[in-house]
Amino acid sequence: MSPIALIIIGAAAGFIATRLMKIEAGVLTTIAIGIFGALVGGLVLRALLTMAGWLAGFVGAVLGAMLLIWLWQTYGPGRRP
Q: Reduced to 3 states, what is the DSSP secondary structure of residue 11?
């Protein structure tokens, strides 16, 4: 990615992040936040994708169990329609 594109994307990401977090920052600080945030986010995302196989299976199992518990509590024996 070219340095100009990195600065533009960093500025946009930093602007959005500072607004979502409700902080005021100067232009250079906002760009720096966006660029360094992209680096940190990229590393975290890469680590999560590495563990995605195991983690996705675990998350799927937990969500499936929660759905079954909800169905049991909502429609199980002793519940009136």
A: helix
Model pLDDT for residues 10-63, shown as the tens digit of each residue: 788 888 988 888 888 888 888 888 888 888 877 777 777 777 777 777 777 788
3-state helix, strand, coil in the chain (%, to 5): 80, 0, 20
Rounded to the nearest 10°, the torsion over CA 40, 44, 45, 51 is: 170
Token pair for residue 5?
A: 């594109």
Q: CA dihedral in degrees (62, 68, 73, 74; nearest 10)?
A: 120
* Residue carrying structure tokens 């992209």: 38
Contact 18, 37 (CB under 8 A): no
What is the pTM (predicted TM-score) of this model?
Answer: 0.53
d(CA 52, CA 46): 10
